User: Fold this.
Amino acid sequence: MSVQAVAGQQYGQIYGTQIVRVTDPKDPNYRKPILNNGLPQQTPYDTLLGNQQARHVIGWTNKFSYKTFLAVHIDGRQSRRERVLLHPGKYGNGGYCCRYGRKWQRDSMVVSGVQGTAGNYTANTTKVSPQQYWAALGTGNTGITENNLYDASNIRIRNIQLSYALPKSVLQGSVVQKASLTFSMNNVWLISSHMHGLDPESSYATGSPAVGFESGSVPSTRTYLFTLSLGF
Assistant:
Protein backbone atom coordinates (compact mmCIF):
# COMPACT_ATOMS: atom_id res chain seq x y z
CA MET A 1 0.00 0.00 0.00
CA SER A 2 1.05 3.61 -0.31
CA VAL A 3 0.16 7.12 0.80
CA GLN A 4 0.19 9.47 -2.20
CA ALA A 5 -0.03 13.13 -3.10
CA VAL A 6 -2.21 13.11 -6.22
CA ALA A 7 -2.85 16.20 -8.34
CA GLY A 8 -6.39 17.47 -7.81
CA GLN A 9 -6.94 15.34 -4.70
CA GLN A 10 -6.41 15.80 -0.99
CA TYR A 11 -2.97 15.07 0.36
CA GLY A 12 -2.60 11.70 2.03
CA GLN A 13 -4.68 9.51 -0.25
CA ILE A 14 -4.37 5.85 0.78
CA TYR A 15 -3.99 3.40 -2.10
CA GLY A 16 -3.84 -0.33 -1.67
CA THR A 17 -5.21 -3.72 -2.57
CA GLN A 18 -8.70 -5.06 -1.99
CA ILE A 19 -10.36 -8.44 -1.64
CA VAL A 20 -11.35 -9.86 -5.05
CA ARG A 21 -15.15 -9.67 -5.29
CA VAL A 22 -17.91 -10.24 -7.82
CA THR A 23 -18.07 -6.99 -9.81
CA ASP A 24 -21.14 -7.58 -11.99
CA PRO A 25 -24.06 -5.67 -10.39
CA LYS A 26 -26.51 -7.96 -12.21
CA ASP A 27 -25.05 -11.07 -10.59
CA PRO A 28 -26.95 -12.19 -7.44
CA ASN A 29 -23.54 -12.62 -5.77
CA TYR A 30 -22.54 -9.02 -6.44
CA ARG A 31 -19.85 -7.75 -4.00
CA LYS A 32 -19.33 -11.17 -2.42
CA PRO A 33 -15.67 -12.27 -2.04
CA ILE A 34 -14.42 -14.72 -4.67
CA LEU A 35 -12.47 -17.33 -2.73
CA ASN A 36 -9.69 -19.68 -3.75
CA ASN A 37 -9.60 -22.92 -1.77
CA GLY A 38 -11.82 -21.23 0.78
CA LEU A 39 -9.54 -18.20 1.25
CA PRO A 40 -9.81 -14.53 0.15
CA GLN A 41 -7.78 -13.35 -2.83
CA GLN A 42 -5.96 -10.06 -3.31
CA THR A 43 -6.46 -7.74 -6.28
CA PRO A 44 -3.31 -7.34 -8.43
CA TYR A 45 -3.80 -3.55 -8.59
CA ASP A 46 -4.15 -0.67 -6.12
CA THR A 47 -7.26 1.46 -5.67
CA LEU A 48 -8.13 4.52 -3.58
CA LEU A 49 -9.29 3.32 -0.16
CA GLY A 50 -9.34 6.44 2.01
CA ASN A 51 -7.36 9.37 3.34
CA GLN A 52 -5.10 9.72 6.36
CA GLN A 53 -6.23 13.27 7.17
CA ALA A 54 -9.10 14.03 9.53
CA ARG A 55 -12.17 15.38 7.74
CA HIS A 56 -13.36 17.32 10.77
CA VAL A 57 -11.79 18.16 14.13
CA ILE A 58 -13.99 19.62 16.85
CA GLY A 59 -13.24 20.55 20.44
CA TRP A 60 -15.23 21.81 23.39
CA THR A 61 -13.81 23.30 26.57
CA ASN A 62 -16.03 23.80 29.57
CA LYS A 63 -15.10 25.96 32.56
CA PHE A 64 -16.88 26.31 35.89
CA SER A 65 -15.83 28.42 38.86
CA TYR A 66 -17.14 28.87 42.38
CA LYS A 67 -14.37 29.11 44.94
CA THR A 68 -12.79 26.36 42.85
CA PHE A 69 -12.04 26.20 39.15
CA LEU A 70 -12.92 23.21 36.98
CA ALA A 71 -12.10 22.89 33.27
CA VAL A 72 -13.02 19.95 31.03
CA HIS A 73 -11.73 19.63 27.45
CA ILE A 74 -13.55 17.23 25.14
CA ASP A 75 -12.61 16.81 21.50
CA GLY A 76 -13.35 14.54 18.59
CA ARG A 77 -12.34 13.91 15.02
CA GLN A 78 -13.92 12.28 12.01
CA SER A 79 -11.40 10.66 9.74
CA ARG A 80 -10.29 7.54 7.94
CA ARG A 81 -6.78 6.23 8.49
CA GLU A 82 -4.75 3.21 7.62
CA ARG A 83 -3.77 1.01 10.54
CA VAL A 84 -1.16 -1.59 9.69
CA LEU A 85 -1.44 -4.42 12.17
CA LEU A 86 1.49 -6.44 13.40
CA HIS A 87 1.19 -9.96 11.98
CA PRO A 88 -1.60 -12.39 11.06
CA GLY A 89 -3.45 -13.53 14.16
CA LYS A 90 -1.94 -11.00 16.54
CA TYR A 91 -4.97 -8.76 16.56
CA GLY A 92 -8.67 -9.31 16.96
CA ASN A 93 -9.84 -12.91 16.74
CA GLY A 94 -7.02 -14.53 14.80
CA GLY A 95 -7.81 -17.89 16.29
CA TYR A 96 -4.29 -18.84 17.39
CA CYS A 97 -1.91 -17.58 20.02
CA CYS A 98 1.04 -16.55 17.87
CA ARG A 99 3.77 -16.71 20.49
CA TYR A 100 3.12 -20.27 21.58
CA GLY A 101 1.09 -21.60 18.64
CA ARG A 102 -1.68 -22.62 21.02
CA LYS A 103 -5.21 -22.90 19.65
CA TRP A 104 -7.69 -20.83 21.61
CA GLN A 105 -10.64 -20.76 19.21
CA ARG A 106 -12.48 -23.00 16.79
CA ASP A 107 -10.50 -25.53 14.76
CA SER A 108 -12.05 -24.62 11.41
CA MET A 109 -14.32 -22.10 9.73
CA VAL A 110 -16.12 -21.53 6.45
CA VAL A 111 -15.46 -18.06 5.03
CA SER A 112 -18.52 -16.33 3.63
CA GLY A 113 -18.15 -15.96 -0.13
CA VAL A 114 -18.33 -17.78 -3.45
CA GLN A 115 -16.08 -20.01 -5.56
CA GLY A 116 -16.01 -20.60 -9.28
CA THR A 117 -16.03 -18.35 -12.32
CA ALA A 118 -18.29 -15.57 -13.61
CA GLY A 119 -21.81 -16.84 -14.24
CA ASN A 120 -21.09 -20.08 -12.42
CA TYR A 121 -20.50 -19.07 -8.81
CA THR A 122 -21.40 -21.39 -5.95
CA ALA A 123 -21.43 -20.76 -2.23
CA ASN A 124 -18.18 -21.60 -0.50
CA THR A 125 -18.17 -24.77 1.59
CA THR A 126 -14.42 -25.28 2.02
CA LYS A 127 -13.28 -25.29 5.63
CA VAL A 128 -10.09 -23.48 6.62
CA SER A 129 -8.38 -22.82 9.93
CA PRO A 130 -8.47 -19.32 11.46
CA GLN A 131 -4.69 -19.25 11.07
CA GLN A 132 -4.99 -19.87 7.30
CA TYR A 133 -7.69 -17.20 7.02
CA TRP A 134 -5.76 -14.45 8.81
CA ALA A 135 -2.54 -15.40 7.04
CA ALA A 136 -4.32 -14.95 3.69
CA LEU A 137 -5.47 -11.49 4.75
CA GLY A 138 -2.17 -10.45 6.27
CA THR A 139 0.65 -12.01 4.26
CA GLY A 140 3.52 -9.58 3.75
CA ASN A 141 3.99 -6.18 5.32
CA THR A 142 0.40 -4.96 5.09
CA GLY A 143 -1.49 -7.89 3.56
CA ILE A 144 -4.74 -7.04 1.80
CA THR A 145 -4.87 -3.32 2.54
CA GLU A 146 -8.67 -3.11 2.60
CA ASN A 147 -8.82 -5.49 5.54
CA ASN A 148 -6.37 -3.39 7.57
CA LEU A 149 -8.11 -0.05 7.04
CA TYR A 150 -10.01 1.34 9.99
CA ASP A 151 -12.08 4.43 10.63
CA ALA A 152 -10.07 6.56 13.06
CA SER A 153 -13.01 8.74 14.12
CA ASN A 154 -13.07 9.12 17.88
CA ILE A 155 -14.38 11.19 20.77
CA ARG A 156 -12.42 11.59 23.97
CA ILE A 157 -12.11 13.65 27.11
CA ARG A 158 -8.71 15.16 26.49
CA ASN A 159 -8.11 16.98 29.76
CA ILE A 160 -9.65 17.70 33.14
CA GLN A 161 -8.24 20.40 35.39
CA LEU A 162 -9.35 21.26 38.91
CA SER A 163 -7.94 24.26 40.78
CA TYR A 164 -8.56 25.62 44.25
CA ALA A 165 -7.36 29.01 45.48
CA LEU A 166 -6.84 29.20 49.21
CA PRO A 167 -8.86 32.04 50.78
CA LYS A 168 -6.95 35.09 52.02
CA SER A 169 -8.16 34.43 55.55
CA VAL A 170 -6.09 31.25 55.65
CA LEU A 171 -2.98 33.09 54.47
CA GLN A 172 -3.43 36.09 56.76
CA GLY A 173 -0.33 36.83 58.79
CA SER A 174 2.02 34.80 56.55
CA VAL A 175 4.52 35.91 53.92
CA VAL A 176 2.46 34.07 51.29
CA GLN A 177 0.10 36.46 49.52
CA LYS A 178 -1.74 33.85 47.46
CA ALA A 179 -1.70 30.11 47.01
CA SER A 180 -3.51 27.64 44.79
CA LEU A 181 -3.62 23.88 44.34
CA THR A 182 -4.17 22.38 40.89
CA PHE A 183 -4.80 18.83 39.76
CA SER A 184 -4.92 17.99 36.06
CA MET A 185 -5.32 14.78 34.09
CA ASN A 186 -4.51 14.29 30.39
CA ASN A 187 -5.88 11.61 28.05
CA VAL A 188 -8.71 10.96 30.47
CA TRP A 189 -11.20 8.79 28.61
CA LEU A 190 -11.53 7.49 25.06
CA ILE A 191 -15.33 7.65 24.90
CA SER A 192 -15.89 6.34 21.39
CA SER A 193 -13.56 4.64 18.91
CA HIS A 194 -13.72 2.12 16.07
CA MET A 195 -10.31 0.77 17.05
CA HIS A 196 -10.28 -1.98 19.65
CA GLY A 197 -7.20 -2.16 21.84
CA LEU A 198 -5.38 0.66 20.00
CA ASP A 199 -5.42 4.44 20.28
CA PRO A 200 -6.65 5.80 16.92
CA GLU A 201 -4.27 8.74 17.34
CA SER A 202 -1.17 6.60 17.81
CA SER A 203 1.36 6.95 15.02
CA TYR A 204 4.06 4.77 13.52
CA ALA A 205 6.17 7.78 12.55
CA THR A 206 6.07 11.57 12.49
CA GLY A 207 7.43 13.98 9.94
CA SER A 208 6.80 11.51 7.12
CA PRO A 209 3.90 10.28 4.96
CA ALA A 210 3.56 7.37 7.40
CA VAL A 211 1.22 9.41 9.62
CA GLY A 212 -1.85 7.29 10.27
CA PHE A 213 -0.03 3.96 10.50
CA GLU A 214 0.04 1.80 13.59
CA SER A 215 2.69 -0.86 13.91
CA GLY A 216 3.61 -1.78 17.46
CA SER A 217 3.54 1.81 18.74
CA VAL A 218 4.04 2.44 22.46
CA PRO A 219 0.59 2.52 24.14
CA SER A 220 -0.74 5.99 24.88
CA THR A 221 -0.53 7.01 28.53
CA ARG A 222 -2.70 8.90 30.97
CA THR A 223 -0.80 11.55 32.94
CA TYR A 224 -1.58 13.20 36.28
CA LEU A 225 -0.17 16.50 37.45
CA PHE A 226 -0.37 18.11 40.92
CA THR A 227 0.74 21.75 41.18
CA LEU A 228 1.17 24.07 44.14
CA SER A 229 1.52 27.73 43.21
CA LEU A 230 2.64 30.32 45.77
CA GLY A 231 2.76 34.10 45.46
CA PHE A 232 4.80 36.34 47.80
Confidence is low (pLDDT under 50) at residues 82-103.
